[in-house]
Specification:
By secondary structure, the protein is α/β, with parallel strands linked by helices. It has helices spanning 3-9, 42-53, 85-97, 141-160, 175-180, 195-213, 236-249, 261-268, 275-279, 287-297, 314-320, 335-343, 354-358, 362-367, 381-387, and strands spanning 13-15, 18-20, 24-26, 58-60, 64-65, 101-107, 121-122, 137-138, 165-170, 219-224, 253-257, 326-329, 349-352. It is built from 15 helices and 13 strands.
Length: 400
């Protein structure tokens, strides 16, 4: 790491009124570490305490459900009830003591859920997928309005729990993204049918959140720049339009990502496809067939890793929101590449997921002058750990 790299990556930058000590962001990563009721304890807090001791400037929590019907996974943390606040408050205090800032990612799972049965709510019905194996039902207008209110209430709880801001999850195939994407949203009423109507749900969610938390509490969003769905999803032109409107509405930062868990998880997290690992969650007699089928659905050659695979979108988004902080995620591994991104004004922050699962202290090592490169090999076995309902960890040296 050269001196110029250090000088730019370890400079402070604000998101809203929150000063972040450096340009590193831990991208939201599901932890599988909460209690079954969504509350959190030491097991959950230790993940974030270690990241903060590792000098990550801004930590974004794993997705936290805003309501019981919005829960996607067992052992997922929640902001659906005031009873969640005490445990989260203890965690945020520990993060702040080590000098990091932390935002809560708030989400509704929509059709992407393993705990809501075979007919979860979504913008539209139909469409069985291989991962969640559900056929969702269309939401009623009353349900849409209730979920919008739930987002605002969850954001207020995050503020009360000591988070420095919230990230609205509008990517990866969860509910808000389902409304935005023409692949998922086939409605013909005011909530679908064209890009403006598909944006309406996100607009109302943002307004609900902002009304609850006020103007001085940062609200940011994660958006897809490419859905990688079997048929047409969001286009970059639509995303530009959405970002321009969000900037006008007062969004404090935008994180750019891609892919959906249901249809393109390895476009989202490029690298190896651990088919045997995922099939190991099946009963033993079905594991061989499961591995073959998984490899057929997600062929390895389609997901070759390349550094900064979402970077292409920054030149489009920068044009429509030059003054709103931009966070870039997607295979960033080299500090010199990250510094170049910031120096060229392609983004204001660089966001990582898998490297910080394997090495939560890597930022501190870089800051201390250790030039050790990222050791994550993009094997994606960390997601196999989660598939076994185990606490998030690097799975590279594990046997399933």
């Amino acid at each position: 790491m050269n001196q110029d790299t250090e000088s730019i990556l370890f400079t402070a930058k604000s998101i809203g009124n929150v000063a972040v000590a450096n340009r590193f962001v831990r991208s939201a990563t599901f932890e599988c570490a909460a209690n079954e009721d969504g509350s959190v304890g030491d097991k959950y807090s230790k993940i974030y305490e270690r990241l903060s001791k590792g000098k990550v400037g801004l930590i974004i929590s794993g997705m936290m459900h805003i309501s019981e019907p919005g829960k996607s996974y067992q052992f997922q943390a929640g902001l659906h009830s005031d009873e969640m606040i005490p445990g989260l408050s203890k965690m945020t205090k520990k993060v702040h003591q080590a000098g990091s800032k932390i935002f809560a990612q708030i989400a509704h799972g929509g059709r992407q859920t393993l705990v809501q049965g075979r007919r979860p709510m979504a913008p539209s019905g139909g469409g069985l997928d291989f991962i969640y194996q559900v056929i969702p039902r269309p939401m009623t207008i009353d349900e849409i309005k209730a979920v919008i209110a739930d987002f605002g209430n969850a954001a207020l709880r995050a503020k009360q729990a000591g988070f420095d801001g919230v990230q609205v999850h509008g990517a990866h195939g969860y509910l808000i993204h389902e409304f935005l994407s023409p692949f998922f949203n086939h409605r013909s009423d005011e909530w679908g049918g064209n890009a403006n109507n598909r944006f309406r749900f996100l607009k109302c969610v943002y307004e609900s959140v902002r009304e609850k938390v006020g103007d001085d509490f940062p609200v940011i969003i994660k958006l897809n720049v490419n859905d990688h769905t079997p048929q047409k999803g969001l286009s970059i032109e639509e995303v530009k339009m959405h970002c321009e409107r969000l900037a006008e509405m007062g969004i404090d930062a935008v994180e750019l990502s891609c892919g959906t868990l249901a249809y393109s998880m390895f476009n989202q997290s490029r690298g190896d496809v651990p088919a045997k690992g995922f099939s190991s969650t099946l009963p033993l007699p079905f594991q061989w067939v499961g591995a073959r089928f998984f490899a057929m659905v997600f062929p390895q050659q389609r997901y070759i890793f390349e550094e900064g695979y979402n970077l292409w979108a920054s030149r489009h988004i920068r044009k429509v929101m030059p003054d709103v902080p931009l966070i870039m995620v997607g295979g960033l591994r080299s500090p010199d590449v990250m510094a170049n991104i910031i120096q060229q004004n392609q983004a204001d922050f660089v966001s990582m997921c898998r490297p910080l699962i394997r090495e939560p202290m890597i930022i501190k090592k870089w800051q201390d002058g250790n030039k050790k490169p990222v050791s994550c090999v993009n094997c994606n076995k960390c997601f196999v750990v989660l598939a076994h309902n185990e606490v998030l960890s690097c799975g590279n040296n594990r046997t399933f």
